[in-house]
Every structure is written in structure tokens, then in C-alpha cells.
Amino acid sequence: MIPSDFRGKVLVNEPLSNWTTIGTGGKADFLVFPEDADELLKLVCTLENSGVRWFVMGLGSNVLFPDSGFRGVVIKTDNLNNMIIEKNLVKVEAGVRLEALLRKAAENGLGGLEGLTGIPGSVGGAVRMNAGAYGYEIGPHIKGVLCVVEGELKNIEYRYGYRFSSVMDMVVVEAVVEFEERERNKILEEMEDFRKRRKKTQPLDRKTFGSVFKNPEGKKAWELLLEAGLPGTRIGGAMFSRKHANFIENTGNARTEDVISLINLAKEKVYEKTGIKLEEEVVVVKEED
Known about the structure:
It is built from six helices and 20 strands. It is of the alpha+beta class.
């Protein structure tokens, strides 16, 4: 299953609750950490050829694993952490924290994505879903994406929309991000302003996976959830945050089942009140493909 010459760390029967920001999820048969892009490529090819189920995870935000766990191999991209700056372009690997990319760029006088400060995800995840906040999106800044495609590393034409991209169903290995040359301290000040804004409006001190629902066209999901009376609503150990209606908190003993039940309840209540069907932003991994 795992290549005999695999150099990275391998954890067996590892609780995924230890690796997701919401703190839920059963055990994965294997949780593995490829050392670099070539090892990631070889691993994915081996698993594909052997028919073993696999899933690539960045920092564990924006994802829900079943309470029954994952029968197969979960691949963590932590070791894909290289960054190279060339003028106003940064070539960055998928495992780099988005926050680390923004800070590295800022320290070199490169800005333009300050509004993404504080998003708790990896570059790979951000590129796949076209992460955005406060009117900023990473999509317009992506000038190249390297992905695993049919057993090779290939450059893919990047297209994007709201919480969508042309590489959503691919393994992102590396991206080229374009920044604007600006005054270093000004960038850092703006990043700090956005960080304070998040702290004031979001439950950053609780276990969450980020936003639950996408914003429907012309609407804000949190406003719809607030109107439907969801804040404070609890199922098991999962509760809609009173601080930000579009966040679900793990109050200490939540199961993925609790979270999904709460999501479904919210969709029903919002639809009954407004006729609007909310769509999840979080990725829900099924028990079987």
C-alpha cells in the first residue's frame, strides 16, 4: 500500500480528530507525510494503481471526516513548505500556511492579499477553493498551478469563481502567486487590522472549521442563519456560534454526526424562512466513495 522506499512519517490507525481544526473524525488506516513533491506524486500513483482510497489534507480546516474514520490513506502536505520569491511573484508549495505566505510576502514589501490574513488553511486548500474574505480573493493573483494529473506533475490552466476553481478536484502541489510591490510596514499594519477584525467577529478561541456555508448570491449566509435563530442552537457537542452565525463550534465532545445534523437543521430552517437553499462550504468526506 505505502511504497517500500517511502521516506516520510507514517501513522497507523491515527485519530483524525487530532488533525482537524474542528476536532472531529475517526481513525484513518494510515496518515502519511510525504517528504517532498516527488514523493507525493509517487505515493498518489501507487495508491491509484492499487485501488486504495486516499485523500489529501492540508491543515485540516474546512473538512469533516466521518466518525467511523477513513479506510485508506490520508495524505498530509505539511512537508511541502518551500517558498521562492522572484520580484513580485512567489512560487509556493501547497503545504505552506496561507498566513506564512502573506507574512513572508509582506516582509519583502509584497502585498495585495491582506484581507486573507487569519484564514486557517494551507496554500493548497486556498488555491483549490479560491479562498476569499473581506472582498479579497486569491484567484486573481494565481499565475500558475502545478498539480498531479494522470501520474505526472502538470501545469494547469487556472480558472476561478466564488469558492470554486478549475483545480478543485486535483492535488495541488505548487502555485505561483502574484503580489503588488508596496511599503512593508503599511502591509503589516493592514494585516494586523484584519487580524483584529477577525478576532472581534469570529470565535477564534474555539474549535471550528471556518465558514459553514457559502454566501448565496446577493445575500450573506450569516445574516440568513441569524434571522432563522440558529446562533446558540446545539446538537450533541456541536453548536452554532453566538459570535458569528456562520461558524459551528465544537463545545468539547462533538462528533462529526452532530455537526452534520446541525448543518442539515440549519439548511431546513433557512429554507423554511426564506426559500433559499444554503450550500456547504466545508468539504464533507463520505464513509465510502
